[in-house]
Amino acid sequence: MTDIPKTMRAVVLKRHGGLDALSYEAAWPVPQPAPSQVLIKVLATGMNNTDVNTRAGWYSKSVTEATTGDAYDSLDGAADNTWGGAGIQFPRIQGADICGRVVAAGAEADQSLIGKRVIADNWLRDWDDPLNMHTAGYFGSEADGGYAEYTVIDHRNVAAVNSDLTDAELATFSCSYATAEGMLDKSGVGADDVVLVTGASGGVGGALIQLAKRRGARVVALASPAKHAEVAKCSPDAILPRAPQNLKQALQDAIGRDHVTVVADIVAGDYFATLIEALDRGGRYVTSGAIAGPIVSLDLRTLYLMDLTFFGSTVNPPQTFRNLVSYIEAGEVKPMLAATYSLEDFKEGQQAFIDKVHTGNIVVVP
C-alpha cells in the first residue's frame, strides 16, 4: 500500500440534478479495501444510461417522460429515485463499467488478483445468497464506482481478462453486454429466432445484435439512417430506420416476413405498440430500458390473443458475467468504442452521451 496515494482525482455526484450536480475533485480520498475487497487502479470506465438516469432521478415513478439528462421538476420529495427504488446516498462516485489493475487486496480477498488487469461484474451481491435479487445493489449507485483514479469492489466481482483489447475497449463490455446477454437469456433467444433490436446504435443495442447473432438468431436492427454504416459493423441481417411508419412492410421487404419472434427493446415510448404488433403468435418481448419514455400503451387483447410473453430484465446471475468474459477472451464479441474523455472533461463526455450522436460506447480514461 506504500505506493498508493492518499488522494485521487474523481468526478463526484453531490445531489440529483443536471450536469451541475457533478463535481470534479482533484484531491478526493482514495478508498481503502475492506477485508473481502480489492483496490483497483482505474484505467478506463464506460458511460451508461444508469449514470444519467440516477443523476437526474429519472427512475422515480414521479417521472413519466423520456430520458433527457436534465433535472426533473417532479422529483421533489421522491425517495424512489434509483434503479432499486430507494434513495441514493450522496456524495457518490458513479461509473460501473471499469477496466483496471488490482493494486491491493483485503486480508480475505484473493491475493492472486494483485497486478492483474480486470473488469467487474456490476451487480453487488450478498455472496452468501448471490441469486437474491432483493439484496442486489449496483456498482456506482449503491457503492462508489469508477469515475476516479481508484475504486474498491468485492474480489468475487472481478475477473482477469486475457485479451489484446485496449483498456478503453474492455471498459465497453460489462454493463452493456451483460445487460444484453441477460435480456437474451430471459427471453430464451436461440437459433430459430428472428430478433428485432431497438436503439441498435447504442451500447446495449450493439451488444444485443452481436450476442443474438452469436446464438445463431437472425437480427433486424432499428437505428437512425446516419448510423447505419456503424451499426452494420455488428453484422445484423437487416437494418431499418429507427421507427418505420409501416414496420410490418419494412420487415417484409428486408427479411421476407412481416413479423419477428422476439423484440429486444431499450427504447419504448410512443413506438411500443407498433413493436408489439410486429410480434408473431407466441412471441416474446424483453426490455431493459425506456429511453424514449416509460409510459406506454398496450392493448391487452394483443397480449393474450397472440399468446405473447413479456420479460423485464435487470439483475443478472453471476454466471452472466463469467460467460461474457469467456466471449471476450474467445473473440466472439467486439467492442464498439465511439470516443474517450478525461475525468476533467467528464461533463462534456456525458453531454455527448446524452446527445446520442455517437454509435457505440463512450469511455472515460483517467
From TrEMBL:
Where does the record place the Enoyl reductase (ER) domain?
Answer: 17-364
Under Pfam families, the record lists: ADH_N, ADH_zinc_N
Q: Which CDD domains match?
A: MDR9
Q: Which SMART domains match?
A: PKS_ER (SM00829)
Q: Which UniProt keywords apply?
A: NADP, Oxidoreductase
Superkingdom field: Bacteria
Q: What is its EC number?
A: 1.1.1.301
User: Top-level EC class, please?
Assistant: oxidoreductase
A molecular function (GO) held by this record is: oxidoreductase activity, acting on NAD(P)H
InterPro entries linked = ADH-like_C, ADH-like_N, ER, GroES-like_sf, NAD(P)-bd_dom_sf, Quin_OxRdtase/zeta-crystal_CS
Under what name is this protein listed?
D-arabitol-phosphate dehydrogenase
To which species is this protein native?
Pseudooctadecabacter jejudonensis
